[in-house]
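Researcher: Going back to the complex we discussed earlier. I've cleaned up the inputs and rechecked each line, so this should be the final set. Can you rerun the prediction on the complete assembly and write out the structure?
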Amino acid sequence: MRYMGFVKMVPGQGEPPQALIEAMDQHIQRNIADGVFVDGGGLYSETFRTEIRLRGGEMTTIDGPFAEGREEVGGYSVLEFRDHDEAVEGARQLVELHRRFWPGWEGSVEVRRIAGPDEVGGK
Amino acid sequence: MTATEAAVTAAWRAESARLIATLVRLTGDVALAEDLAQDALVAALEQWPREGIPASPGAWLTTTARRRAIDTFRHNEVVRRHANALAERPDPPEEDDMADQVDHVEDDVLRLIFLCCHPALTPDSRAALTLRLVAGLSTSEIARAFLVSETTMGQRLTRAKRTLAQVRAEFEVPDLAARIDRLDDVLSVIYLIFNEGHTATAGSEWFRADLCHEAVRLARMVAAMLPGEPDAHALQALVELHAARLPARTDADGVPVLLAEQDRRRWDQLLTRRGLAALDRAEDLARSGRPVGSYFLQASIAAVHMRARTAEETDWARIARLYDVLAATAPGPVIEVNRAVAHGRARDPEAGLEILAALPDDALADSPVRAAVTGDLLLRAGRAAEAAAAFDRAAALTRNDAERAVLVRRAEQARTHDR
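Model: Rerun complete. Updated structure for the full complex:
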């Protein structure tokens, strides 16, 4: 079953340490070698980012700055797991890497199953 | 199952191939390696709920199993020397397992795959052993997939491991000359697993599709570990592209849907893109002079179908050319029947019928495929009465109820046409 994983963090924690970048790279290489990782990438934080919002029938375009303080998505991956337990373990390992290689980092990893063609939102 | 137990099982499945591969290298014995790995799993189920999940589950399992390997050897006089050599090496530090050992460990996994696909084993045993040791499936899961009892599958696996021990199968990546033959064995085992899931002759639909996904995963592993081998990328392309069509292969009632009638919006875009990218990699390697085999041609044919937005837009001339090359390199009646379909579309139905007429009478005599294709070509050629008779023959030959219903319907349609 296919999952989307998001790494989320409160902005303003600085740049990730080189050790984390290397560990993440190895983690992804390993997932590729296991046939688990099928797609993914990092996301720009401020540039090339636009929100189009509808409120009370009014459409507004926001190019930033975006609200500070809330967790935002820094990257995504599409992964194929056999069951939800494997997805949870994958997410836990990613958080573990952050704990080891980016002391003080606060954030979260979320895994969500992607609904198949016959499932509506996976209720 | 508690959350920790679920985590143990998930970590085990993610790590078992690497764990068993490392243990086979250390012990030289597949059955012992598997037992030690199982012991480590049991230890994890005991300790992790109390002590928490370790930072690196793979390293924890490896260290635990390695210590048990040393203990086991110490109890055995014959291999005491081996144990002493092993014990003199320090435990690898848990923290650095991913940083320093990843290449080494991936080599072990590759060796394990070659070992599971050893020529001394039958193709079915190779497939079962690969699913057990590399994919980490349980014996009962593999038994269900191959439609045999758990006892039968357990015996098959035990026999396979004993055979490997008897022939003193070497745990190594074969040298270049031998590797070409052996890689072909590995790829054909993965393709066999895929087809086992793909050919839904019986059994639970749901699990059979899972088997296809296991094969896709194995194909990705081998291509990632042997990036310079065009055939590895070609097989990956082939299974990714076929897996992309799985969601459209049956309708809501589980009745098979022919390729021409599939709802192409249901094809998996991500797998299609990955399959086409793998085919590009194979093509690049082929261009630089590495020889390619039949998986490359089959994947190229699948790619032509995937690139057509509708069945009518299919480039049948290109498919016909590819089947001509395939027929020249890997001749066989199944290829000829497919070649007949392609030429029947690319040129005219008579061209396809000529190819079928050139086949010996007894070729594919037990399979409904030849008669069904003959019926289709005859119908397109306007020979409806002969077409109806061919569909009747095909319907009598199939053992699949859903397929029979389709063929009976086509025979009736041909008869209506004839009136």
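Model: Worth noting: Chain B has three domains: 1-93, 103-224, 227-307.
Researcher: Good, that matches what I expected from the previous run.
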